[in-house]
């Protein structure tokens, strides 16, 4: 798809894609075709999928290497 509008991320290139998540009009450079998202949404989803608040070995009590719930 080509629309006569600038990319909503870089404001320079012609629009070639629409993000499936946020519906931004973006150029090919700012679109991840593998996931169908703009680079901003693709990065946000990747951040959301990363485990949060997992303590490293320095934060665990001595002699404990795993937590069980």
Q: Spans of 5+ residues with little confidence (pLDDT < 50)? A: none
Supply the number of helical segments.
1
Query: Helical percent range?
Result: 10-25%
Number of E strands = 6
What is the makeup of the main sheet?
A: 2 strands, antiparallel
First-to-last CA distance: 50 Å
Question: How do the strands line up in the largest sheet?
Answer: 1-2
Could you say which overall geometry the principal axes of the C-alpha atoms support?
rod-shaped
H and E order:
EEEEEEH
Mean pLDDT rating: 82
Q: If you compute it from the alpha carbons, what radius of gyration comes out, rounded to the nearest whole angstrom?
A: 19 Å
The secondary structure category is alpha+beta
What portion of residues belong to β-strands? 15-25%
Describe the fold and architecture.
With 69 residues, this protein is an alpha+beta fold. The protein has a domain at 1-40. The chain has one helix spanning 39-49, and strands at 3-6, 14-15, 17-18, 25-26, 31-32, 37-38. The strands form 3 sheets. Strands 1-2 form a two-stranded antiparallel sheet. It has a two-stranded antiparallel sheet with strand order 3-4. Strand 5 and strand 6 (37-38) form a beta hairpin. The model has no long low-confidence stretch (mean pLDDT 82).
């Amino acid at each position: 798809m080509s629309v006569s509008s600038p990319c909503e991320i870089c404001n320079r290139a012609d629009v070639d894609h629409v993000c499936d998540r946020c519906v931004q009009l973006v150029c090919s450079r700012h679109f991840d075709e593998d996931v169908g998202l703009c680079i901003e949404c693709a990065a946000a989803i990747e951040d959301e999928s990363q485990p949060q608040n997992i303590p490293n070995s320095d934060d665990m009590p001595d002699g404990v290497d795993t937590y069980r719930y």
